[in-house]
Amino acid sequence: MALLLSACGYHLRGAFQLPENMKKVYVEGGSEPLREQFRQIIKASSAQLGSSREGAAIVIKIFNEDFNRRVLSLSTRGKSNEFELVYRLDYELANARDTLLTERQSVEISREYYNDQQFVIAKDNEEATIRTEMYQQAVHAIVNRARVVLEANAK
């Protein structure tokens, strides 16, 4: 069964097929929730998130990480009905010797959600879930870019 699953291209959700030269990654900067998403995605991809830049194939430097929440609409009672979440960060990719592989680039992700005043606690949980998904999407974008850069440099 395992042989059939691997032959058909099956892989765990969220897992990447990383090139051999990207098996050790170091993340510099960033918030704890973002670093946790890097940890999970790199682990699911059979790679290792290093605790130092020594021996790392690629160093991901995170700058200007920012999460904003904005009210989009109000109810007749003046309560918030709809919110927009915007997550933005800048990053650079470098090697272990601190040679830049890419210039500083940005990732920006936004989501809107309805805030039902009757289910306030559930909506708080929904916002936390949306934030986690936004961190995941940012990590996927950065790891995909890193993969492309490493594959281009290998040729």
UniProtKB/TrEMBL annotation:
<keyword id="KW-0732">Signal</keyword>
<dbReference type="Pfam" id="PF04390">
    <property type="entry name" value="LptE"/>
</dbReference>
<dbReference type="InterPro" id="IPR007485">
    <property type="entry name" value="LPS_assembly_LptE"/>
</dbReference>
<comment type="function">
    <text>Together with LptD, is involved in the assembly of lipopolysaccharide (LPS) at the surface of the outer membrane. Required for the proper assembly of LptD. Binds LPS and may serve as the LPS recognition site at the outer membrane.</text>
</comment>
<keyword id="KW-0472">Membrane</keyword>
<keyword id="KW-0998">Cell outer membrane</keyword>
<keyword id="KW-0564">Palmitate</keyword>
<protein>
    <recommendedName>
        <fullName>LPS-assembly lipoprotein LptE</fullName>
    </recommendedName>
</protein>
<keyword id="KW-0449">Lipoprotein</keyword>
<comment type="subunit">
    <text>Component of the lipopolysaccharide transport and assembly complex. Interacts with LptD.</text>
</comment>
<comment type="similarity">
    <text>Belongs to the LptE lipoprotein family.</text>
</comment>
